[in-house]
Amino acid sequence: MERIHRLLPPAGKCPILAGNSPFYTPISITRCQSKPFTKPASKSAIELRFITNNRDRNLSSSTGPARAGWFLGLGEKKTIMDLPEIVKAGDPVLHEPAREVRPEEIGSDQVQKIIDDMVKVMRRAPGVGLAAPQIGIPLKIIVLEDTEEYIGYAPKEDIKAQDRRAFDLLVIINPNLQKKSNKSALFFEGCLSVDGYRAMVERFLNVEVTGLDRYGQAIKVSASGWQARILQHECDHLTGTLYVDKMIKRTFRTVENLQLPLANGCPKLGIR
Ligand SMILES: [Zn+2]
């Protein structure tokens, strides 16, 4: 249940997008033939975890494992459950800007697989959002989703205060986020790449995100409340920013201490 409150999900690593990467080979645009996503995942499937091994991590990387960014499994025989693990804080891929996905890359098998993996990893966590760098891919792709089931685990007073409402799966490539008002809110948030901790972060209450969907079509998302927070958190990942870079430091705490009172001098939770 604790995981439900996280903004993001876990998984492994994937290949670096270096100049010699397959990603740099010009590719023709093809329409995605993928079937619509089905809801996860039996309980047992969600609980399964697979560890990325070092052999996988070194695939196609010419700069060595220290650089992070592997195309996990490209060209390898993988089972359906062989999903990437979530990259944790400290890996450079989480602290450096991601690059834009070129239009001609969107229809490629590689990018479509990355998106599929991201959705599966997010749901496996489970989490309500994930950015490609969190599975080791330095590309500007985010996925997010909040469900009645997840929300059902949260205290009612939190749901109301946070203006948290369910929304369907969103896949946004090359997102561009803009605030739509100066209103902001302070709430605790977490990150699957910073496992086991929470801190208060100030976020805009209303934002608009433009970008491309997984078929390369332009999309615009207007969001408020908790969905706006998720979007800001995920878009931050694409600039190499974690919530701990923006948090109110004196509110940082373990998940176990989440309910403890704020220290003297900390701002109050809620809308400002
Ligand atoms: Zn995160």
UniProtKB/TrEMBL annotation:
Gene3D superfamilies: Peptide deformylase. Keywords: Chloroplast, Hydrolase, Metal-binding, Plastid, Protein biosynthesis, Transit peptide. GO terms for molecular function: metal ion binding; peptide deformylase activity. It is found in: Plastid, Chloroplast. It is an enzyme of class 3 (hydrolase). GO terms for cellular component: chloroplast; mitochondrion. Its EC number is 3.5.1.88. It catalyses: N-terminal N-formyl-L-methionyl-[peptide] + H2O = N-terminal L-methionyl-[peptide] + formate. One of its GO terms (biological process) is translation. Belongs to the polypeptide deformylase family. PANTHER family: PEPTIDE DEFORMYLASE, PEPTIDE DEFORMYLASE, MITOCHONDRIAL. Removes the formyl group from the N-terminal Met of newly synthesized proteins. This is Peptide deformylase. It comes from Mikania micrantha.
